[in-house]
Design a protein that fits this description.
CATH architecture of one domain: 3-Layer(aba) Sandwich
CATH topology of one domain: Restriction Endonuclease
CATH class of one domain: Alpha Beta
Structural class: alpha/beta
Number of helices: 9
Strand order of the largest sheet: 1-2-3-4-6-5
Low-confidence stretches: 1-6, 126-132
Distance between the termini: 128 Å
CATH superfamily of one domain: Type II restriction endonuclease, HindIII
Number of strands: 6
Shape: flat
């Protein structure tokens, strides 16, 4: 039998490994270390094996998901049908409508930022101090509103009420074909971030100014509206959208110039149309004067003011009814307590008489016995707030 000759050499020292050394290395798993070249070759081989395996799996996945020409054609047809259905249902027009609303919203926000910057610039020009009062900024807002209206309608007349002067901020008289058609009362309010809208106070003043100006329409321009619903009308408010309080004949309008322009134009046209229903003559009969008054601005202003007061009277009437109910309940409770008091007092007198009469009897003084006093009938009061029982 041929013997295997172990002529392996150690790469450290170059000496030939003996059979014993070779046997020891076989037991511990081979040579103690590999050359750097061998390790680099093994690393590259392993990396290529992994890359080949990944590519093989990827190609298998592509083949698995590969569609036939018939499947691709059916998918294109389905996509086309989906697009046609969306177009027929108005989807595209709906998208355009949403985009238009978004463009309007962006313009309003840009107008608001522009207005804020203009106000800041005006404040900086008028004041050398670091702090600026809210009153000054409010006056600048009034002036801004006045400038917008005058710029839009140069043929109309405007009265700008000064600081401290009674009345609304602006009285806008509309002219059409050289004739006065009516007026709009404008009130401007600017609130600091920590201040809220005083609708009860401010709206009452607005309606009073509207009546004094004989305006058929009043507008309150503000940088924010009352929270949630307007207390006087119960109408849901959504700033900065303009909102009509129809019962009382006034509008909410934001300070955004675009909103002021749109609302003022619509209201101006409304007043011109309303004036066209009046009778224009140099000499009017009594019936014609009555007709003009009934259809005119003063009559409308009076009617709106009456409606406002009626809404307040309803609130006060409910409060009076509540107080009356409380007063009746207190009266009933008082009578009931008084009857209990009288009953207790009567029991005390009866017991005291019994005690004294017992002593008289023991001492043979029967002539001095105390007669029992008659019991008082309890007081009775009808309670009109008490629900009557139904009789079956």
């Amino acid at each position: 039998m041929r013997k295997n000759i172990h002529d392996d050499r150690c790469y450290h020292c170059g000496q030939t490994l003996t059979p014993e050394a070779r046997e020891h290395l076989d037991k511990i798993g081979g040579l103690l270390a590999r050359t750097p070249e061998q390790e680099e070759a093994d690393r590259k081989a392993e990396a290529k094996r992994i890359e080949d395996l990944a590519d093989e799996r990827y190609q298998a996945k592509l083949k698995e998901n590969e569609k036939t020409p018939e499947q691709e054609e059916a998918e294109k047809k389905e996509i086309k049908q989906t697009i046609e259905a969306a177009e027929s249902s108005g989807y595209k027009s709906g998208v355009r409508s949403v985009q238009e609303q978004l463009d309007v919203k962006i313009k309003e926000e840009a107008d608001m930022k522009k207005q804020i910057n203009e106000l800041k610039a005006s404040v900086a020009a008028l004041s050398n101090t670091k702090g600026v009062s809210g009153e000054l900024i409010g006056n600048l807002q009034d002036q801004k509103l006045f400038d917008i209206l005058v710029g839009l309608y140069p043929d109309d007349e405007f009265k700008d009420f000064g600081i401290g002067e009674p009345g609304a901020d602006i009285l806008h008289t509309i002219f059409h074909n050289g004739k006065s058609c009516g007026s709009i009362t404008w009130e401007s309010k600017r609130m600091e971030p920590h201040k809220s809208f005083k609708e009860t106070e401010w709206i009452s003043k607005l309606m009073k100014d509207k009546l004094e100006n004989k305006s058929s329409i009043a507008v309150i321009v503000a940088n924010k509206y009352p929270h949630k619903k307007d207390k006087l009308s119960g109408v849901e408010l959504d700033y900065p959208q303009s909102c009509l309080i129809e019962d009382f004949g006034y509008w909410y309008c934001s300070t955004i110039p675009h909103n002021i322009q749109m609302l003022s134009f619509a209201l101006r046209q409304q007043i011109i149309a309303q004036a066209s229903n009046l009778i224009y003559k140099d000499q009017l009969s009594v019936s014609e004067e009555v007709m003009n008054f009934v259809c005119g601005e003063e009559s409308r202003a009076i009617s709106d003011k009456v409606t406002l007061h009626n809404s307040k009277t309803d609130v006060h009437r409910q409060k009076v009814l509540k107080l009356q109910q409380e007063a009746i309940k207190n009266a009933v409770d008082t009578i009931g307590t008084l009857n209990k008091y009288d009953a207790e007092c009567q029991d005390v007198l009866d017991l005291q008489s019994r005690f004294i009469n017992s002593l008289f009897k023991i001492t043979n003084q029967t002539d001095n016995l105390i007669e029992s006093s008659p019991h008082k009938e309890p007081l009775v009061i009808d309670n009109p707030t008490k629900k009557s029982r139904s009789v079956k």
